[in-house]
Amino acid sequence: MEPKNQSTPFVNRDMLRFEGTATFGLRIRTVSVGALNVQIKGMTREGPFTYTHTTTGTGTFDIQEFRIPDVPIMVSVVDQFGQFLQGGCYVTLSLTVNGDIMYELCSGQVFGGKSISYPNVSSELPRPTGGLIYDILNTAPAAGVNIGYTVPAGQTWRIIACSAELVTSAAVANRRARIEMTSDSFVKAFGQSTIDQTASQTRRYCAANYGTVQSELAGTFIAVNIPGGVLLPENSTIFTQTINIQAGDQWTGMSLLAEVFFNPLIP
Predict the structure, then answer these.
(1) Which of 89, 90, 103, 231 could form a disulfide with 262 if both were Cys (CB 3.0 to 4.6 A apart)?
(2) Which of 64, 148, 144, 80 is nearest to 114 (CA)?
(3) In terms of C-beta density within 10 A (0-12 exposed, 13-18 middle, 19 or more buried), how is residue 140 classed?
(4) Is residue 244 left, alpha or beta, with left meaning phi > 0 and alpha meaning psi from -120 to 50?
(5) In what order do the strands lie in the sheet with 37-44?
(6) Hey, how many other C-beta atoms are within 10 angstroms of the C-beta on 144?
(7) Is-contact 13 22, C-beta < 8 A?
(8) Residues 201, 142 contacting (CB under 8 angstroms)
């Protein structure tokens, strides 16, 4: 078949010799921290279309495909209702022909006020290169046990700050706490208090990149200086390590502030 509508600046089905046997689709791949909706909005020569994709919110990639009648003239992925914050959802949208990916149309962060589109448009991030600012709190461990986090699969964390409270038992001993960050089972960075915590005391350890700390102890608060800008890949850990911890000593849950980046690797 000879191509039709050759003045059209976009490829369409009639321009293709195999157009009678081809099926077209849009494949969306997302990773996010919330099970929320994004919309795929666009148009072909047949008219406009809108599809809704629900992300899993598990931090792992989710894939869904939608059939379309022709090659898209234009298409966008939008967070129509502003449900995500910056860094909260990463999207890749591809054109498929007969179920195979032929072309990656667009990819990037999608959140309130920031979409991705084909043809590409200039859309700056409010915080350039910024990830999701993630504030999380885990549960307290058993008595006499340290506490921490493991970075989930498919994510990289930049540690900003963390804090946890240690309540010591009446057992006589000098405890000293530090924050350790490990990757591949090796300690890559840590910060340690120079102040002992003795029996029957309650102290909250607040770890961040303070620079020069004039005095670590302020009332019941102890400042722990940790390196800034530490990036922890998936399966890394950040946890407390307590010298001379006693069986009756009790850590609370750790409150962690981190910048989260999704690893844009497609399985």
Answers:
(1) 90
(2) 80
(3) middle
(4) left
(5) 47-54, 37-44, 74-78, 116-118
(6) 14
(7) yes
(8) no
Domains and CATH numbers, the chain: 13-118 (2.60.60), 132-262 (2.60.120)
Q: CA separation (Å) from 147 to 68, 127, 178, 264?
A: 50, 32, 11, 29
The residue with tokens 């000098």 is: 174
AA letter at 122: S
Which residue bears the tokens 């009446």?
170
Other CB atoms within 10 Å distance of the CB of residue 95: 20
76 is written with which tokens?
């966008």
Instruction: Specify the pTM.
Output: 0.74
pLDDT in tens, the chain (267 residues): 444 554 445 677 777 767 667 899 999 999 988 889 999 999 998 999 999 999 988 777 889 999 999 999 999 999 988 889 888 899 999 999 999 999 999 999 999 889 999 998 777 777 777 888 989 999 999 999 999 999 988 889 999 999 999 999 999 999 999 999 999 889 989 999 999 999 999 999 999 999 877 789 999 999 999 998 889 999 999 999 999 999 999 999 999 999 998 876 544
The candidate with the shortest Cα–Cα distance to 233, out of 267, 266, 255, 265, is: 265
Contact of 73 with 49, CB cutoff 8 Å: no
Q: CB within 8 A of 240, min separation 6: which ones? A: 146, 147, 148, 164, 166, 177, 178, 179, 180, 205, 251, 254
161, 257 contact by CB (below 8 A): yes
What amino acid is encoded at 226 in this protein? Answer: I
How far is 255 from 237, CA to CA, in rounded Å?
14
Torsion of CA 254, 148, 110, 264, to 10 degrees: 170
